[in-house]
Amino acid sequence: MVEKMMSRSVRLLCAGGFAASLGLTGAATAQDNTNIQRVEITGSSIKRATAETASPVQVVSREELLRSGKGTVAEYLQTLAVDGAGSLPTGFGNGFAAGSTAISLRGLGATSTLVLLNGRRMAPFARADDGQKSFTDLSTVPMQIVERIEILKDGASSTYGADAIAGVVNIILRKDFRGLELKADTGWSRYDDGKQNKASITYGQGDLEEDRYNWVVNAEYMQSDSIANSDRSGRRGYIGAGDLRPWGFPVGTQFANGFISGTNNANQSVAGAVRNPVTTNYVTLPGCAGLTATQDQTGANGGCLTHVNQWRDMQPEIESVNLYTRGTFQVNPATQAYVEVGYSKRDTSFTMVPPSFTPTVAFPPNAQNPQGFINYSNLNLLAASHPQNPFGAPARIRYLAGDIGPSVRKANNEFKRFVAGIKGSAFGWDYDTGFTYSNSELQLIYTNMLNMNVMRAALGDPTSQYFPYYMGAEAGRNPASLYAALAVNAASLSKSSLAVVDFKASRELFALPGGNLGIAVGAEHRREKLSNPSLSGSENGSINSNYVAAFGDSKVSAVYAELLAPVLTGVELSAAVRYDKYDNFNSTTPKAGIKWTPVKNFALRGTYTEGFRAPGPAEGGTRSQSTGNSTVADPVRCPGGQALTAGGATSTDCGLSVAAVKVGNPNLQPETSKGYSLGLVWDPFDGTSIALDGWKIKRSNEINPLPYNEAAALPTAIRSDNNLVINGQVIPNSGTLIMTQAPYRNSSFTEVSGVDLDVRQRLRLGEYGRLNLGVVISHTASWLRQESATRAYQFAGTHGNCDTSNCAGTPKNKVNATASWDIGAWNFSGNVNYRDKMKNILFEGNPCASLLANGQPGTKNCEIASFTTVDLSTRWNVNKQLTFFASVSNVFDKVAPLDPLTYGALGYNPMDASGAIGRYFKLGASYKFF
User: Where is this region: Disordered (predicted)?
Assistant: First the structure.
């Protein structure tokens, strides 16, 4: 019996988490600690008797997660008010890290958000977002076995890592499950597409007290159908429609192809267009009507107008498997050993557009091409003797190869994780030590890419076996052997790995007036490796894709210490310091906090913290290079937001998707940060809890590429030779902007500040059950980037920052409101998610980013309207074994607001995907056998 009690006490001391969420547990006064369970809270290694700390921590319970109706952990986290610009949604298929998902706290980017699984790091996704930002892929986390999610919202953590500049997301999985449970659900949209099927099995056995062990295993399978933009175009207005002319926009929007803008100015056409070498005017080849789904050719100016929704997916096809097991063994009354093994495989397939014959591709300079790029659009690709050349002289073309078909991007990610550790009590200390190894292998396969050497020979070399290649309506004359040589699959296999040895210990020391002094110490050593080679053929411009690669191998050793001092009754001081030693850098980062509880139901709290992030392999590696895209207004052809139409510019130049080459810079210095929070926790009435926290994070010496709007103004920018002609004078180097350079550099700083409000109310309704209400509001007052001494950008409330936020925008306010009613065997829940309106500008003070054909703002008041969705769910516990559940997302079928600027989706913001998919239904059941 004594042994049993000691075993239980060890389990409680080493629980590694707490059961009450932020705002639901009042501030605690000093108490007799002998009968109080002490637990560890994310952000601190010192166990305590109250969930409230000096740091604001938001907790998502298992019930909240499962009631939401969301299919994955990432989908749920991206609805939270604390998530901001820079997160990666499932539907962002044309991004660098397509096939992955990520959260971005405070809009500071996924690379500044530390994601943990059971309090430990995971290997990052094997391809950096935007070719720069390393992050943890949330898709690898199994959903059904999540116990809770703790979100530390006040910035860097001395315990987990100084690089957690924006905060920590700690996903904690179930550790002591017993029984056998099967669960399955199926979902479909109101259009009977986007079908999703999930099934899971969880088995656990053993009781730590009775059997001295517990073992749990979980397996999940998910399959989700793709949704094409064409499945929504015409059904939900502008959603999925590349053609925005019905809403007053000009022909030349970013998802339109084939139109001719004027002399020496045309873009890729599915019919094929050939330039007259004398007049430089483009002439479209015959047969347009049979090649394009766009029937209205008004404004094409002799071109063959097409839109990318003819091919491109809105949501990818996904198939995934998640396996997880954990064994806990009670070695003796004071010692536990544990092992965790995780495996995840996620295959994503995203259909894009057919290849263009005239891209501009960038790659590392070589002896044959010291400039490091090839601008195929400025080459005379079509031989004089080509049957489709009407001019009898070598000519330029513009061709989108619809006959080859759309390119499909396949991202197959395999993630493995192993943890082994021991924890317990010895010599008055509670300790936990372990070894963690995880790796990620990402296989990218891009189908229907072009072998550019075959393409050039097939169009321009009469002596080649591949000549002639017929474009457009005559493509049926091409032999299969030509396509076999021309259309190739490009592939790469990227790998990342993380190995960590860690140790931490805590104990109480002597008594202070408010309680016992707590101390914690810890150390870790980790090694990270990244090998992210570029797609085969992109290293020299021989396929139609830019070179994207990063390589790195780094070691980090760290030690830290933490104190918790209840110096007076109701006054608790905390302090921590961490020292990190990198290969080329080192840092000492402190953290301090105070919590004052003058009365039992009211507490004031505040923290100060510092952070440190060394350059990642994609940023500082000499072998690293990437080319990203962002929407800019060409400062030469569209100065001040007004196109120089008299000189030959068009409105397209005012919202141009431009590429920028980013090369690793070994001279970069680390980023540093300072964070502040000040707030209160108040329980004014029984069942009522209020938490209000102000926060500010300043990230200095930032690692950023040169802003795209500044990069576009560089005299070295690559342009077409359709120069402006003003008053009869040709303006040199004023042609259509194609590509520029945006080197990584240390900017000045970014400062983000705001306020979070969390209000909860619990109501006991007697025979009518229980009702829980809650609302969380996150207000971003300022999101200021000081790029240099003379240039600053304010992004709060705007569509930017497009350079590093995926052009998802930075709304000032986000709100989550929840209600959950338990009555008898039933539960009814509702969630309301609100995103504030945003100015449709790239940054404060900039002109409207989207204009109608008449020159007026492209959206009402030059704003992206606010967006609100309501989700409902219900659960019926038939008996102790059987449960049925159902949910409806976007109950009122709200349509996502028009967003003509974003490049992540067609006509809508990618973070508003539920408004593009439409009302979504789910039905499911679970059965627990024992």
Answer: 613-632
What is d(CA 772, CA 687) in angstroms, rounded to the nearest whole number?
Answer: 9
For tokens 């329980």, the residue is 683
pTM for the full model? 0.88
Query: What one-character-per-residue DSSP string does 535-562 give?
Result: PTTTTTT-BSS---BEEEEEEEEEEEEE
Please answer whether residues 82 and 756 qualify as being in contact, where contact means their C-beta atoms are separated by less than 8 angstroms: yes
CA distance 864 to 853: 18
- Helix, strand, coil percentages in the chain from 3-state DSSP, rounded to 5: 10, 45, 45
Residue spans of the chain under pLDDT 50: 1-39, 48-50
Cα atoms found within 13 Å of the Cα of residue 361, Cβ hemisphere only: 27
Distance CA 142, CA 126 (A): 19
The amino acid that residue 79 corresponds to is: T
pLDDT tens figures, 431-444: 999 999 999 999 99
Structure tokens of 833? 């998610």
**Closest of 559, 466, 564 to residue 512, by C-alpha:** 564
Contacts of 678 by beta carbon, 8 Å cutoff, 6+ apart: 605, 606, 693, 694, 695
Distances (CA, A) of 772 to 20, 166, 690, 758: 14, 29, 14, 13
- Close Cβ partners of 130 (under 8 Å, ≥ 6 residues apart): 95, 96, 626, 628, 804, 806
Alpha-carbon distance of 169 to 567, in angstroms, equals 30
Helical residues (DSSP H) of 471-599, grouped into ranges: 480-486
Other Cβ atoms closer than 10 A to 384: 14
| Closest CA relative to residue 184, chosen from 929, 930, 922 | 922
Going by C-alpha positions, the residue among 244, 268, 271, 272 that lies closest to residue 257 is 268
The span from the CA of 609 to the CA of 451, in Å, is: 52
Could you tell me whether strands 167-173 and 113-117 are parallel, antiparallel, or unpaired per DSSP bridges?
Answer: parallel
**Residue that is written with structure tokens 């109250």 in the block:** 50
Sheet holding 120-121, edge to edge: 57-61, 146-152, 167-173, 113-117, 120-121
Helix (H, G, I), strand (E, B) or coil at 637: coil
Tokens found for residue 866: 């606010």
pLDDT for 41 equals 58
Least Cα distance to 894 among 154, 237, 99, 180 occurs for: 237
Helix (H) or strand (E) holding 364: none
Do residues 900 and 880 lie in contact, with contact meaning Cβ atoms separated by under 8 Å?
A: no
Lookup: tokens for 530? 């990244």
- pLDDT tens digit sequence for 817-863: 999 999 999 999 999 999 999 999 999 999 998 999 998 999 999 99
Q: Are 645 and 263 in contact (CB under 8 A)?
A: no
**390 CB neighbour count, 10 Å cutoff:** 11
Tell me 653's DSSP state: G
Q: Do residues 444 and 491 make contact, with C-beta atoms less than 8 angstroms apart? A: yes
Closest CA relative to residue 764, chosen from 698, 685, 821, 701: 821
Residue 668: how many other CB atoms lie within 10 Å = 17
- Bridge partners (DSSP) of residue 564 are 518, 574
Q: Which of 83, 69, 23, 76 shows the shortest CA–CA distance to 814?
A: 83
DSSP string, 213-260: EEEEEEEEEEEE--EEGGGTTTTSTTTT-S--GGGT--S--TTEES-E
Sign of CA dihedral 707, 712, 715, 719: positive
Q: How many CB atoms lie within 10 A of CB 246?
A: 10
Total residue count of the chain as it appears in this document: 930
The CA dihedral of 81, 86, 90, 91, to the nearest 10 degrees, is: 110
Which residues are CB-contacts of 245 (< 8 A; sequence separation ≥ 6)? 251, 296, 298, 299, 853
Give the closest residue to 438 by CA, choosing from 40, 14, 76, 137: 137
Q: What is the model's pLDDT at position 70? A: 84
Nearest-angstrom CA–CA distance, 117 and 343: 13
The owner of tokens 């300079």 is 365
- Percent of all residues in the chain with a pLDDT value above 90, rounded to a whole number: 67
